[in-house]
UniProtKB/TrEMBL annotation:
This is LytTR family transcriptional regulator. The chain crosses the membrane at residues 22-41, 53-78, 90-109, 121-146. It comes from Larkinella punicea. Residues 180-291 form the HTH LytTR-type domain. Keywords: Membrane, Transmembrane, Transmembrane helix. The lineage of its organism: Bacteria, Pseudomonadati, Bacteroidota, Cytophagia, Cytophagales. It comes from the Bacteria. InterPro entries: LytR-like, LytTR_DNA-bd_dom.
Length: 291
């Protein structure tokens, strides 16, 4: 079980998907309470009862949307695929549920005129937790299994070029070099296009990883990834595969998949580069055309 909780799980959802998740969570909570009216709601006599019960769903939607949209903005390094796991996703949902229970506690106390009948805080959180945790945890596990099977199966069907060791002195023609320049216009790095492995973005810097004497070398440049990308024009096999990575498709030796998506393996598996979902179709098509 612990091993399952440590498995990678997709984290970097588009904004519209976060809104959709919040909507369905709120919809489920509101509809569940309206239909079954558990925990004494069926005996609750109050004007506009249906609207008030649906208010619990609206609160669930607003809390979920607020957490999902704001926290990744303020804590971007925490909400990345590199750190996100099945266990963290379940804990994240548990945090949503706990906060929803807390806000719903104040909501129902505002509705009930006589505070003697107000539901205790702990009980409100437990009620919300019981309603939401099982379908939430179940959906995480089901989604993990479905995505894992999808990307593992698809990765096995993606062909890659065979790579052969270069024979020293086999090429007498001096290749045209790529020159990448930092923002200060002074720090530069030059190498043949075929020697580039990948470029990784990190805040205001980019790490350029290329081969020198068939060994990986890393050079740090103060430059955005988008700025360096404009300096790679004319090399169709050097492509963006993620918001933080540019990769040399000619160096891809194997493609694997997990619940987060595809992983591109370079240099005998020393480097594994993620592929963002938005690049899946174009990147797979390019790999197939190159095989």
């Amino acid at each position: 079980m612990w091993q399952l909780l440590n498995q990678p799980y997709p984290c970097e959802d588009p904004v519209r998907r976060r809104w959709a998740k919040a909507f369905w969570i709120g919809f489920f909570v509101g509809l569940f309470l309206l239909i079954f009216q558990p925990f004494g709601l069926n005996s609750w006599v109050t004007p506009y009862k249906t609207v008030k019960i649906l208010g619990f769903g609206l609160i669930s939607f607003l809390v979920t949307a607020g957490l999902s949209l704001l926290l990744p903005v303020f804590l971007p390094k925490l909400f990345t695929n590199e750190r996100w796991t099945v266990g963290r996703e379940i804990l994240w949902i548990t945090a949503h549920i706990t906060l929803i229970g807390l806000v719903n506690y104040f909501y129902i106390n505002a509705l009930i005129a006589n505070p003697i009948y107000a539901i205790e805080l702990f009980g409100m959180i437990v009620v919300t937790f019981v309603i939401g945790i099982f379908p939430s945890a179940g959906s995480v596990l089901v989604n993990y299994i479905l995505k894992l099977k999808k990307y593992q199966q698809a990765a096995r069907e993606i062909p890659v070029r065979e790579h052969h060791a270069e024979i020293p002195g086999a090429e007498s023609v001096q290749p045209v070099l790529i020159t990448l320049t930092a923002e200060n216009e002074k720090d530069i790095v030059s190498f043949p296009p075929a020697d580039l492995l990948y470029i990784e973005s990190s805040d205001n810097y980019s790490t350029v990883v290329y081969l020198k004497n068939n060994q990986p070398v890393k050079t740090l440049l103060r430059s955005s990834l988008s700025r360096l990308e404009t300096q790679l024009t004319g090399n169709a096999f050097l492509v963006r595969c993620h918001r933080s990575y540019i990769i040399n498709l000619e160096k891809v030796e194997k493609v694997t998949g997990n619940a987060q998506g595809y992983k591109l393996h370079l240099h005998d598996g020393d480097f594994q580069i993620p592929v963002a979902r938005k690049y899946n179709d174009t990147l797979v098509a390019q790999l197939k055309s190159m095989a």
